[in-house]
Design a protein that fits this description.
Elements: H1 7-19, H2 23-35, H3 37-59, H4 62-68, H5 70-92, H6 109-127, H7 130-139, H8 151-184, H9 188-210
Helix pairs in contact: 1-8, 2-3, 2-8, 2-9, 3-6, 3-7, 3-8, 4-7, 5-9
C-alpha cells in the first residue's frame, strides 16, 4: 500500500511506544503537574510539531545524514542537553506563583505569551533530542518496502499516522496529569516542591541526554 509494509504492526508498535514512558512523556507530565492542564496540552502540541519536523527530515533523507554525521549529532546532543538543563534550573529557581486562574476564564495576555513559550519549549526539546533522530532513522524504514517507487510518500504517511497517534496519547497524558494535580489542591508550598522535583528531573534528563551515543 503506497510503499508501506506491515501497516497493522506499525500501528501496534506505535501504541506500545507511546505507552512506554520516555523523555517526551516526562516533559509533558512535568509541565502538566507544575503549571496545569493547559501547559501540558500546549507542550504536547509543541512536541507533535517537533515530530512533524523529524518525519519530514526522515522522508527526505536528512535524518539519516544527520545520524551519520558525528559532528552534527554531537552538536544537537549538546544543545539539547543544555536546553533541558536550562529549563530545569529555571524551575528550580522559580519563585512561588499565585494560585492558578480558573481555566474557564479567558487567559490574560501574559498567560497567552506563557503558553506560546511552552509550545516552543516542547517543540525544541523534541527537535534537539538526538535519541528521536536515531528513533526515526531506525524505526520507520522497517515499514517501507525496499523496492517501492513511493518511499517518500510512504515515510510521509507513516509520519502523519505517528504524529496523530502520539498527539492523542500525549494530550490524554497531559489532561490526566493536570487533572490529578488540580485535585491535589493549590497549596503554594506543595506547588513549590513540585516545581523543584520537576526541575530536578529536567536537569537529570539533560545530563542523561549528554551521554547519548550513536
Amino acid at each position: 500500500m503506497l510503499g508501506i509494509a506491515n501497516f497493522p504492526f506499525f500501528i501496534v508498535a506505535v501504541l506500545l511506544l507511546n505507552a512506554t514512558p520516555g523523555p517526551d512523556t516526562a516533559y509533558i507530565v512535568g509541565r502538566s503537574v507544575s503549571q496545569g492542564r493547559s501547559a501540558g496540552l500546549v507542550s504536547a502540541l509543541g512536541i507533535s510539531l517537533g515530530c512533524c519536523v523529524h518525519s519530514l527530515a526522515c522522508a527526505f533523507g536528512l535524518t539519516a545524514l544527520l545520524a551519520a554525521s558525528a559532528a552534527a549529532f554531537t552538536l544537537i546532543k549538546v544543545v539539547g542537553a543544555v536546553y533541558l538543563i536550562y529549563l530545569g534550573v529555571m524551575l528550580l529557581l522559580k519563585k512561588p506563583a499565585a494560585d492558578l486562574r480558573d481555566e474557564a476564564q479567558a487567559p490574560p495576555p501574559a498567560a497567552t505569551r506563557s503558553l506560546r513559550a511552552l509550545f516552543l519549549q516542547g517543540f525544541w526539546t523534541n527537535v534537539l533530542n538526538p535519541k528521536v533522530v536515531l528513533f526515526f532513522v531506525s524505526f520507520f524504514p522497517q515499514f517501507v518496502s525496499a523496492d517501492s517507487a513511493h518511499k517518500t510518500l510512504a515515510f510521509l504517511l507513516l509520519g502523519a499516522v505517528f504524529v496523530a497517534m502520539s498527539t492523542v496519547w500525549n494530550g490524554g497524558v497531559a489532561w490526566l496529569a493536570g487533572t490529578i494535580t488540580r485535585r491535589m489542591g493549590r497549596n503554594p508550598s506543595l506547588r513549590r516542591w513540585i516545581d523543584r522535583i520537576i526541575g530536578g528531573a529536567f536537569v537529570g534528563l539533560g545530563l542523561k541526554l549528554a551521554t547519548v551515543h550513536r
